[in-house]
Amino acid sequence: MPILAALLMIFLGGVGQSFVLEYMVKVDPSSGSTITFFQFLFVALTAFHDYLTYTRPDGTYVATAWARRAERTAVTEGLSDCKM
Asked: Each residue's pLDDT tens digit in the chain (84 positions)?
């Protein structure tokens, strides 16, 4: 059941977003690129923190889930001498 709910949310959200975008472009034809840009910016900024690695002020290394996955893959595939 959770898979069905997730699929419904994905598809209904995507279709709903398409209808809203088409309506907004119909009301103001010059707004399509601006709306698309801000959608991209929103998604990029909300997902950006998942791809960061940083150090704390005390010098300890903090890896995000993405960096830990990349390091684990590098070790399992014999690429542990790669610089991250």
From this structure: 788 988 888 888 888 888 888 998 999 988 888 988 998 998 888 877 666 666 667 766 666 666 667 666 665 555 555 555
Length of the chain (residues): 84
Cα(47)–Cα(50) distance, integer angstroms: 6
At 61, give phi and psi (nearest 5°): -85, 130
Cα–Cα distance, 44 to 51 (Å, whole number): 11
What is the token pair recorded at 84? 């991250």
Instruction: Assess contact for 30 and 36: CB atoms under 8 A.
Output: no
Q: How far apart are CA 47 and CA 13, in angstroms?
A: 18
Number of Cα atoms under 13 Å in the Cβ half of residue 8: 5
Sign of CA dihedral 49, 50, 52, 57: positive
